[in-house]
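We emphasize that the prediction below concerns an isolated chain of 378 residues; any contacts that depend on oligomerization or on bound cofactors are therefore not represented. The input was used exactly as deposited, without trimming of termini.
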Amino acid sequence: MNFIGMLLFMAIIGAVIGGITNHLAIKMLFRPLKPIYIGGKRLPFTPGLIPKRREDLAIQLGRTVVDHLLTAEGIRSKFKEPAFIKDMETWARSEISVLLNSQKTLSEWLEGLGISEVEKKLKEKLNAFIETKYEDLLGQARSKTVGETLPEELLLKIDSRIPDFSAYILNKGIYYFQSNEGRSRLSMMIQDFLENLGSLGNMVKMFISNDTIVNSVQPELIKFLSHEGTQDMVTQLLDQEWDKVKCLEVGTLEEKVGREQLVSFLKTQINEQIPYRIWLRSSIKELSKSYHQFILDTLIPKAVGKVSDFIDNRVEEMMERLHLAEIVRKQVEGFPVERLEVIVLSISKREFKMITYLGALLGGLIGIVQGFIVYFVG
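Result of the prediction step, given as a token string:
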């Protein structure tokens, strides 16, 4: 019995020592978290292995991720997978469809992106652009004549249209004097003319009424405006005036009209022709309704393909600029060791227990062997 008792005692002692030793070894992977000093000297094996080598671990993990896990080839192949491309198209259609069906106005949507007072800023930008382009166009042309500045094709076109312009003016005159307004105006003009004649005019009015004179003058005036010779005369006058304008320097013409008036006229006309105010005050759904299906069915697949090709051609450069190894290193260095211990133990808890039990088993077997040695040697 003494021999059996000794073997049991030695086995128990060995098992306890083996189990505790393995348990401490596992704990010393993480603990203590900081070095322990006694009498100014640091105790061996403090801090634990992982806290002590965390910087080296972070660097090695960063290299491992870049070299073996998150590689350029892996990213490139992922972006080329048909299933992934299809998923990206589905996701893009879903997100863009929400935007295209939004009841928000374009102005409200831009304000949501942090762009405020869009209409005011757009008007200022457009007006500044008009002024810049005005100076670009007239800057070097001010010392030249209008005829030298305008294109030859435009000059010839204006020359050829002067007879049409003359006919237009005379037709407008005929239409005006045939109207009631024109007849009233002609009557007032004749009355003013007779009044300016003094006594002679009063004498004429005594014998001839104003309506009679108007009835006589109106047909003759219309006949005069309709005469071919009148059109030739007006055309000749316009030709002469146009020749004078072509000989004017652009700078002189600008001074006569006024630079501010010209720029203001251009700003007004261009601002009225470009309906950006209507666009900004319309909902995104209303603005995009004509292009909804085209965007979803055509543009999005093309955009996804372009993005895939872009990443395929520049993935190495992008990864280099992202400094993934540095990102991983910083994340690991900033990760609390206590949290890392909890994660590792939650994953490998059963395995660590088995290691502890194995240590106890081996310790117990070693204790039995030592018991046999002590018994037979002693």
